[in-house]
Design a protein that fits this description.
The chain is mainly alpha-helical. The chain has one domain (7-118, 170-239). The protein has ten helices and two strands; from the N terminus they run αααααβαααβαα. It has helices at residues 7-13, 15-25, 38-50, 64-72, 86-91, 132-147, 149-158, 174-184, 200-215, 219-239; strands spanning 114-118, 188-191. The protein has a two-stranded parallel sheet.
């Protein structure tokens, strides 16, 4: 769980308790997260580390490529990742008929109707303080990416991204098909609430606390996760003014 890879747990997995708290409270953001579903977060994290192909005490030394290799080599049955992972899985020799995508269940009432986690967390931005020529060139490039055949092909097939634009296309990606099937079946997708997370420091604090807990699971070390999650959220938002 090297820092370059722990985004899967301190951001994507952490989104589940955030999502359900927002849903229960009827809100879309907050400066003071309550941690209502942190016990559920602990249960899914316990499942992750107790049934990992890696000794929990060594998880912090591992990265995404290690997890990917474990999955491709048949050492692991589940691998938390997104549709963009399809290219690597395909190159690893896993056939489409041997793949499935499952929602991440954390024991919340009504989650039998839960779909996949769906959304985006990063955005391309153009610096408004840059030279006007550079701004215009950047906007022209972005327009080319999302309208040209070459740009759309790169996004959809080379990178494995969905392209929900007017001229967009579905990538040749079996995992995308499975995600679309989940939507078509009427399942409710889990929204990504990453833009409401106060800072990268908050994520790192949660990631470090999860790693500490994995080495020595106990109520005390899980309290460290709670502090990082709840108190860290409030303190990081306080810095924003």
């Amino acid at each position: 769980m090297r820092r370059s890879s722990d985004w899967r747990f301190k951001t994507h997995l952490a989104n589940l308790p955030i999502y359900y708290e927002y849903k229960a409270d009827g809100i879309g953001t907050t400066k003071n997260i309550k941690g209502t579903y942190l016990d559920n977060y602990r249960k899914i994290w316990d499942l992750y580390i107790s049934d990992s192909a890696t000794d929990p005490a060594l998880i912090s030394t591992k990265g995404g490529t290690d997890a990917e290799a474990e999955f491709i080599n048949g050492q692991a049955v589940f691998f938390q990742n997104g549709t963009w992972e399809y290219g690597a899985i395909q190159k690893g020799g896993i056939a489409d008929e041997d793949l499935a995508m499952l929602p991440i269940y954390i024991g919340v009432e009504g989650e039998e109707n839960q779909g996949l986690c769906t959304g985006t967390e990063n955005y391309l931005c153009v610096n408004g303080q840059a030279d006007e020529k550079d701004i215009e060139a950047s906007l022209e490039f972005l327009k080319w990416v999302v309208t040209s055949e070459t740009g759309l092909n790169a996004l959809a097939n080379d990178m494995g991204f969905l392209t929900p634009f007017k001229q967009g296309k579905n990538p040749d990606n079996y995992l995308v098909k499975l995600a679309n099937d989940s939507l078509a079946s009427g399942k409710t997708p889990v929204s990504w609430n990453f833009s409401t997370i106060p800072s990268e420091d908050w994520k790192n604090g949660v990631g470090d606390a999860l790693a500490t807990y994995a080495k020595n699971p106990s109520d005390d070390t899980w309290n460290g996760v709670k502090v990082a999650f709840v108190d860290g959220w409030a303190s990081e938002y306080a810095k924003l003014g």
